[in-house]
Amino acid sequence: MNLEKVIGLGVAGNFTGHLEQAGEAADFKNVTVKDAKAPKAIFPFYLPKSAESRLDTFLHTFPLSSDRVNISGTISENHQIEPEVGVLCEIEYDGDIVSALKPVAFGAYNDCSIRRPGAKKISEKKNWGADSKGFSASLISLSGFDESSEISSYRIACFLKRNGEVNVYGVDSAARDYSYMYGTLLSWIVDRMNNQKDEGPAENIHEYLLDCAKPEMALISIGATRYTEYGETHFLQPGDISYVVVYHERYTGEEIMKMVENDSFASDGISALVQKAV
Q: What's the pLDDT at 180?
């Protein structure tokens, strides 16, 4: 699949406590949600340029890589891994309105972010050029998106290897423990795609969809897990290796750690994203 034709969207605030750890909770202090458990907003990280595009935006730069994250041009800023599940979805339209999302596959995703106090929009911290985000080349097919589907048996782990030493960066978490998940999450995203306004840190996604000539697919990162104390206080440096591992719960956390230490992952039931910071 050519991901350069796929619109890239992210969900902000879908794991309790992550925004506070990332220093971003204040960005959403004026955002009103109907449900206290609901995520705060969706944000764009990539907009595929169409022949009809009128927008001139940095979001036209394709940011995804499966093996590197480029921090060299923004080395003076703090870059932090954000371990997530990325879900590839078919987009269904009724005229110009998004009517449904159909998830077809998922994999390990790094919503790597620059911590920029004062940034006006979420997207300003998400796409700083080529190789600024990560999506695994090893994806897991979905036959559905509910409590009995494949994704409900997977967990998310995150590690940072620095000078040969592996450190646990994210709190090992079950995908089913996202605040919004399954049909609830999909319905909420569809609503935000159609109705989210350009207010505060949020942007008008429907306007972007039309400018992109209604893309057929979306890659949606559905929220970052909490950090360990190490992850909360350590930022990427050149030469670091970041690992986001989405794995079937038949594996233990210790087995995943051993795979990371050996840089060798089982081929079944694992989507691993390994990126070198350059």
A: 96
pTM for this prediction: 0.93
Strand order in the sheet with 154-162: 68-69, 270-277, 241-248, 154-162, 165-174
Picking from 201, 162, 20, 170, the residue whose alpha carbon sits closest to that of residue 81 is 170
Query: Once rounded to an integer, what is the mean pLDDT over residues 99-128?
Result: 94
Q: How far apart are CA 271 and CA 274, in angstroms?
A: 10
Q: What structural domains does the chain harbor? A: 3-154+175-234 (3.90.850)
Hey, what long-range contacts does 116-122 have (CB within 8 A, 24 or more apart)? Answer: 116/77, 117/23, 119/27, 119/201, 120/201, 121/43, 121/201, 121/202, 121/203, 122/10, 122/12, 122/27, 122/41, 122/43, 122/201, 122/202, 122/203
- Continuous H helices in 196-277: 205-211, 229-233, 253-262
Separation CA 97–CA 148 (nearest Å): 29
Residue 235, exposed/middle/buried by CB under 10 A (0-12, 13-18, 19+)? middle
